[in-house]
Amino acid sequence: MAMAQGQAARATREAVPPVSRVAIIGGGISGLAAAKQMAAYDPVVFEATPSVGGVWKHCVYRTTRLQTPRPDYEFSDYSWKNRDDPSFPTHTEIVDYLEGYADEFDLWRYISFGSKVVDIKFLGGAEAGFTELWSGTGKDPLRGKPMWEVGIVTGDSNTVQYYKFEFVVMCTGKYGDVPRMPVFPPGKGPEVFKGTVMHSLDYCKLSEEETVELMRGKKAVVVGYKKSAIDLANECAQANQGEGGQACTMLVRTLHWVVPSYSIWGLPFSMFYSTRLSQLFYERPNQGFFRSLLCRLMSPLRAGVSKFIESYLSWKLPLGRYGLTPDHPFVEDYASCQMAILPEGFFDMADRGLVRFKRASAGWCFSENGVVLDDGTKVEADLVFLATGFEGKDKLREVLPKPFRDLVVGKSSMMPLYRGTVHPLIPNMAFVGFVESVSNLHTSELRCRWLSGLLEGRFELPSVKAMMGHVAGEADAMRRTTRFYRRHCISTYSIHDSDGMCADLGSATLRKANWIAELFAPYNNKDYKEQ
């Protein structure tokens, strides 16, 4: 009986009207947040898979955990049931949490599962995207006129069904679906290798038994040194413990700082980057002369904070012993959202010889029996895993029509999104989940609230020229902060970013109870709970 009631409560959308107001593409974190904020428009959520959760459901390893503490990764109006648990949530816990969120706000009724978007057509005319104001007026985009036609295939059918919408929210995300594959000269690619080559995306599809069977007793090479590569190498080491086990070799092209926990010399990590006072000293987009001067004067303090954290990491972790100490400041990784939290016991595996590290700064290629580094070093392998990331923007290019598909990436290699949401030259469409921060969930939720305000007509957007200037200012701020500026990451100015959206909505920008808390207490999603 209880199971039947649960299934009834999760009844999903059975039919899609030929014409609707809002389409949301993707049922991950951003898609669910968008559905909740735009419930007044009875949105249609197209999800290609049979479940919600996005990458947390379909693009994780069995040991993958969140890199953020629970209180920093929750919706403002829906708490974790065990939010005081200090452990990082597993991917199954995250999916359960998202399903609970959908239960709480009755979001299932908007979702059409098994509906893959394969085509999007623009109905607004050739010049509609190139006006002085976004979407012609810069406000009130819902005017009763369909602007997009979305093509869907369901199940095993090859028939494309088209549905019209006034507004489309793209929540397809940056990860999963389209793997980033390294390119090699002829005769030096995977075709010459006698073993197995697998991208991490394909590895995610295997069961625990299949992964252990694949890796046990095999010489494996993992290409990469970010979170997915470290987790994969850790699973490989676990599978090879005991008699007959083989070492896993990580090919490290670019070093990044790794962190064992959110505590630095006994101090909470949030005090260094997540308070209003701490973010005061970092570059922010489009800042004036006096703020630029302050940032320049505070540069020794910023460097001191970074070195303080680096000193702890170098003491706590055997980075020097394995040649894994980066030559750039910690803040550059933090500012580009490339800091990775280590799985528990990772360097213990390295100390036992189950994980090895090879620098491949100048590149590498395949050979018949493994891989060869550009310095001539040969590494034998039976398996080569490519933890080389994803081409999330290619997912957009595949479905967007011309000329909009050519506008997805700007000169800075980032998506030129005003408030991280609206492309100034693409009318009646928004993009959520393409900006990174310490808490991508908070970043997406607040953007969905801002977008809802835009649809309600609560504010007017600046001119297209002004928005493009703002976007360029964000790219410039990133370029001045980190050499890895091609990622749209707001970690060092996230509070300022939130202030801008709150101001647009007419909400308070100062969210704390008093000025002491305002300066010294870390900000998180609960500070942005709607009253």
From TrEMBL:
InterPro entries reported for this sequence: FAD/NAD-bd_sf (IPR036188), Flavin_mOase (IPR000960), Flavin_mOase-like (IPR020946), FMO-like (IPR050346)
Short name of one Pfam family: FMO-like
EC number from the UniProt entry: 1.-.-.-
Keyword line: FAD, Flavoprotein, Monooxygenase, NADP, Oxidoreductase
GO molecular function, one term: N,N-dimethylaniline monooxygenase activity
Cofactor(s) it depends on: FAD
KW Kinase (keyword) present: no
EC class name: oxidoreductase
UniProt similarity note: Belongs to the FMO family.
Name of this protein: Flavin-containing monooxygenase
Organism taxonomic ancestry: Eukaryota, Viridiplantae, Streptophyta, Embryophyta, Tracheophyta
Name of the gene encoding the protein in the UniProt record: LOC123100343
